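[Q] Does anyone have a clean structure-token version of this?
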Amino acid sequence: MLFLIVAYITIFALLGFYIFRGTYEGCTYFATIDDSLFNLLVLLTTANFPDIMLPAYYLSSWYCIYFIGYLVFGLFFLLNLLLAVFYSNYKQMLEKHIQSRDQSRFDFLEAQFQECDRN
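[A] Here you go.
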């Protein structure tokens, strides 16, 4: 799952690096591949959404398709999928913990019963 998110951010970072080359947006947010990766990682948290999109939007309103497509797929599909994976793993760990606690309680009660019932 982590590989899928890293690949998704990397593909859009490379795409943004080449789309916005030579523009104010490219100099500010997509100057290098590292800057692109970092800014798109922060953008996936929606912390800098209007700040990163507005310079490109002033050049052409078609650039907002890049950002909205990135956010829609990333937020509504990938992050929800990541949340589902974490929840599923948490649920499995909780079930194992409950089963082991129930088993230890049963073993304790059985030992106490055997100690009280000598016949």
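[Q] Thanks! Anything notable?
[A] Residues 2-87 form a domain with the Helix Hairpins fold (CATH 1.10.287.70).
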